[in-house]
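hey so i finally got around to running the thing on that chain from the lab meeting. sorry it took forever, my laptop kept dying and i had to restart like 3 times. anyway pasting the input first so we r on the same page abt which one it is
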Amino acid sequence: MTAQAKPPVHFWLIAAASLLWNAMGAYDYTMTQTRNTAYLEGFSADTIAWIDSFPVWAMIAWAVGVWGSVLGSVLLLARSRLAVAMFLVSFAGALASMAYQHFGSAMPDDVRGFAAAAFSLAILLVVAALWRFSAQARRKGWLR
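ok and heres what got predicted. didnt touch it at all, straight out
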């Protein structure tokens, strides 16, 4: 491992793309939690009631998943080795939240199905990939 090695261009591209990806999740979370009426127009009453029925622990897990990934991306851009731990924490939060949504709740028909499951899986795969990428970047000395 080389200390303070200069990251290649692809490091910066992945780190920046990760922040943009995670900003979309942060936007969704923020608009949902603040009850933005323009954003929620696309949600059915059943879906809003379903979100409102989440237990506190599932809401916390959702927040940890979303904001942990945002912070992980910021830490990655700052070349901080803490990004590795933050992406792992984010993965745990996202996994717990999605496990509740898909297996522990009565998901409404308009958000259930292959597309919802595929999108949830995609989110988990991206967070896992970011965790692995940040761990490799740490090993290569790109993170401090």
